[in-house]
Design brief:
Layout (H helix, E strand, L loop, with lengths): L7 H15 L5 H8 L1 H13 L4 H17 L3 H12 L3 H13 L3 H12 L7 H13 L3 H14 L5 H14 L3 H15 L2 H14 L2 H15 L4 H6 L1 H17 L1
Length: about 250
């Protein structure tokens, strides 16, 4: 055993250090991990690993959906007030996100672009938000302007979401072969319901009937096991999928 004789906390610290190097984290994490193996590993897990995990993403999605159902405009109202009171980049990012989630993607994109003109011009989270907003308002070329360098410079940052946004942006700019390859790669790499649904939506709308039928069977099998709450969390993609399925039925 390569780690024989080492304490478990040291082994965990080494694993965290390997993750830090592979994901190109700041090098001070290595100092923290090896100076304080147990405490450093805990801080690294909750500070770096957990925020990028699917578990936290699902939990946040559930909380946000519940709040939105009770008061759909609350976050947007609060975000506007916060930015009006203290116009920091953080509050502007919050406002931009609230605008996109509230159906005002065009205005949200403008807010994200305003953030990118300042000292946070290279911040991955802001560039991702801008790209997401541009895809939402069908400005696909503008989305690719952020997405392609973002994936190249930060390959482990929101990899699944960026892969799908790129595929949708290729589709929106009529780059058919690239869109097909991007959707296939996203499904193969991540295998999520969202990845398969986005691929199916594209296949239905472009007349790829065999691919659409295959994916539709897989999606129905997955969604048949969902609870009502899970179905509610995926309302948006389910509506888009139903619309694409209806369009595909007319074209068949």
């Amino acid at each position: 055993m390569p780690f024989a004789g080492l304490g478990l906390h040291v082994v965990i610290a080494i694993m965290c250090a390997i993750h830090a190097i592979r994901t190109r984290q700041q090098m001070y994490w290595l100092l923290i991990l090896f100076a304080f193996p147990l405490l450093g590993s805990l801080v690294y897990f909750f500070g770096v690993c957990l925020p990028n995990s699917r578990l936290e993403a699902k939990a946040l999605k559930a909380v946000n959906a519940a709040v939105k159902a009770i008061d759909p405009t609350r976050e947007l109202r609060e975000a506007r007030l916060a930015f009006d009171d203290v116009p920091t980049a953080q509050n502007q990012m919050r406002l931009a996100s609230a605008l996109v989630n509230g159906g005002s993607a065009e205005e949200g994109a403008r807010q994200y672009e305003a953030c990118l003109r300042g000292p946070f011009a290279a911040e991955p989270e802001i560039r991702f938000g801008a790209a997401d907003a541009y895809v939402a308002c069908a400005r696909f070329a503008d989305a690719l302007r952020h997405l392609e360098p973002l994936r190249q410079q930060h390959p482990d940052f929101r990899a699944g979401q960026i892969a799908l946004l790129i595929a949708r942006a290729y589709a929106g700019t009529a780059r058919v072969a690239e869109a097909r390859a991007a959707f296939e790669a996203a499904v193969a790499a991540f295998g999520t319901y969202e990845a398969k649904a986005e691929y199916a939506i594209w296949a239905f709308t472009t007349g790829e009937h065999a691919t659409a039928a295959r994916l539709n069977l897989e999606l129905e099998k997955i969604s048949s096991r969902w609870s009502a709450h899970t179905r509610e969390l995926n309302t948006l993609v389910l509506r888009r999928l139903a619309a694409a399925r209806a369009l595909g039925g007319k074209q068949a």
